[in-house]
Fold:
Amino acid sequence: MDGNYGGTLDIRLSVADTVIFLDFSRILCLSRVIKRRFMYARQSRPDMASDCPERLNWEFLKYIWSYPITRRPIILEKLNQLTQNQQVIILHEPKEVREFLQKFSHYSNPI
Structure:
């Protein structure tokens, strides 16, 4: 699952067998959002619909900055309540993500 849709988090967690939580610092998240804004100014990112240009506003910046205080504890509590049959993987920095993905690179089929 992907995203920060809190209204459906419980539903999605209840059917997940594995959760990978990217628990990055707010500085990293803010810097990436700002970088993305300049990279894709007045255009859509490749991973978004063509009519959805990159935007940045104060409300979104405040959300990112307050996330570790307001949302993160709630998510961590929900992850702690998952069953023993549900695996939780928490990655704190991009290097950990690269190392995690590297473990599975031998499974991909070249085209």
